Amino acid sequence: MLELDWNIVIKNLPLLWKGMVLSLKLFAIALVGGIFFGTLLAMARLSSWWILRKPSQWLVDAIRAIPFIMAIFWFYFLTPKIVGAFTGEQGEAIGPFWSAVIAFILVESAYFSEIIRAGIQSIPRGQPWAAYALGMNYWQAMGNVVLPQAFRNMLPIMLTQAIILFQDTSLVYVVGLKDFLGAASTAGQISGRVVELYLFVALVYLVICFSLSRVVKRLQERMDVGRT
Amino acid sequence: MVMIDIKGVSKWYGEKQVLVDCTTTVAKGEVVVVCGPSGSGKSTLIKTVNGLEPFQKGEIIVDGLSVGGKDTDLAKLRSRVGMVFQNFELFPHMSVTKNLCIAQEKVLGRTADEAHDKGLKLLDRVGLIEHKDKYPAQLSGGQQQRVAIARALSMDPIAMLFDEPTSALDPEMINEVLDVMVELAHEGMTMMCVTHEMGFARKVADRVIFMEKGGTILEDCSKDEFFNTPRKPRTQDFLSKILAH
Ligand SMILES: Nc1ncnc2c1ncn2[C@@H]1O[C@H](COP(=O)(O)OP(=O)(O)OP(=O)(O)O)[C@@H](O)[C@H]1O
Ligand SMILES: [Mg+2]
Question: CA–CA separation, A123 vs A130, rounded Å?
């Protein structure tokens, strides 16, 4: 029989909490950044200008083609070099957290841009036409008319993507960051009681992601009702 | 004084030409009705007037400004030309009042109070003041189209463009919209209307333009001439069909 000693979890709660704070911080920054730049990317991809449309498409395709974990690795090793190339200084990196943030924003922008592009395309052409006919410029038509409607339609899919993003934040262990999972792993190695800690981590992830999916389901049901 | 001057406009979608050397004018205070069979380019022509559809050849001058011109502030030009669409195109996520105010505030820079006063005045004028806090989806088609006309008027346009404003409506709602348009015409608004409502044309049109498949203007004459002595057999044919029901 497996003897479980939950005291080890309680003893490590401060450490685990610190890890959770890092996870949540990374999640929030990546979510906001991903949606912001994802929106710009989506707009570029729908542009009538080749010079905006093609490069943004290449970028999105390229990012989606590489494994997430590789992007995190690359930025960890590349950003010190890039920063060094600009400042002329060697070694002084921006650190694993900010390099991870950049990687996350980049990757999430690509994923969100696909969702947002579909959302923008779901709005009938007459809507931007009406906005332009009233004298609005591109940014006013997008900001006041097209995007608010598009985001409302996309909310369930965006939340689903957000759940995936939250789970993906645990990937930062590869660059030595102590997120929630990383903190549990460290505590487990020190104490030798890995099972309890990983069980606890799994439970917390389960609760968070499950409740978020419930919210998504509710939203979807409400929107289906609203449509009829 | 010529308000809208369309000179030799041609437009292609890829290889396909949809407007062929279209030329016509709308004078200040004039009401011009555009009709013709489906696919003849009526919507396309009227959308070129405020630059919603680009064109490759010719020139369009609106109140002295060239629509395709390099230095033309297209947004500003559009803000001075009202447009009403077949499918109303109210903004569904905004209340009726917000629909009436948004462009006044964002485009004309009016204060919220000014925009609100103006919007409600126009809403009252189209007989919908009691619906000011509703959302478009809560209104009937005829009511939505009247709000859309009020929204266009809120910008104090120098001319109004209509693209089949009643063809998406149930028959019993057509008149409430046409009544608003007739009133506008009587007030001297410059209007270019794509419509097959020949009753409306008879009542207020100064001129009628008939477009034919392929994107040409086949007939461009006074209302009386159009209804009584149309020159082209094709126009007579179209008229007999449309007046039959
Ligand atoms: N985006 C587009 N791409 C290619 N062809 C188009 C496009 N929009 C319109 N057309 C074509 O241009 C022609 C003119 O279309 P338009 O909508 O102006 O006709 P219309 O006279 O308004 O017809 P309706 O009475 O059906 O509204 C049609 O043959 C149509 O198929
Ligand atoms: Mg049409």
Answer: 12
